[in-house]
Amino acid sequence: MELFAHRGASAYAPENTLPAFRKALELGARGIELDVQLTSDGVPVVFHDFFLDKKTNSSGLVRKLSWKEISALDAGSWFSNEYKGTRIPTLEEVLEIVPRDVCLNIEIKALSLFKEPIARKVCDIMAADAERDYMISSFNHQSLKEVQELDNNVRIGILTSSHMLNVVDYVESSGLKPYSLNPEASYLTNEYVADAHRKGWKVLSYVVNSPEMAEIVAQTGIDGIFSDYPDLEIPASV
Ligand code: G3P
Ligand code: MG
What we know:
By secondary structure, the chain is of the alpha/beta class. The protein has helices at residues 18-26, 67-70, 91-97, 118-127, 141-150, 167-174, 190-198, 211-218, and strands at residues 2-6, 31-38, 44-46, 103-108, 134-138, 155-160, 180-183, 202-205, 224-227.
């Protein structure tokens, strides 16, 4: 099973920051997941919540602030004093520190209400970064559609956060051609994984933070997990 460091090594450093990505690399992560959204002036920044309130010293929607304003925020103090002053990075700043052979799972965070050019911005940045191992995932399947239309070769991960009665029907009728299905771990079943594999899709599941849970999800035959602990012990094979 592959392991993606979820928001970097987010158990050890403030999520989605350069220290969290450096820590993940230090712990030997071969895959890193991060969340991207756009600032008001269209800069892709790495941040999970749509609102700044919980994890910075500011408030309101990320998309309402410019890059200049976002870049001045403290995204580390909420985690611990040690990280006071840690900034929200741009996607490009993360690309500078993550080796090209570490697989980046770039999750697009986009509110459907706002028609933002986030798929294009992310695709443009990634296309300019030759030889990079990466995939793009999202709960916003419209964004994935846009990615697919922009570049048919990008590996796409379809994120879901509820039980789906017939995921194969859904995916086939959506027109998406996924590399993987990325379901929340509590909705996994052996049948789900077998159905996906029959279609040639991998299954990557989130968020798995304990050896016990890793053992349980491994039983379903999945291909990978997202974990806040890049050093989590992964069951060999089941
Ligand atoms: O991509 C896996 C996981 O990151 C999806 O959920 O809310 O942590 O972005 P979330
Ligand atoms: Mg994510």
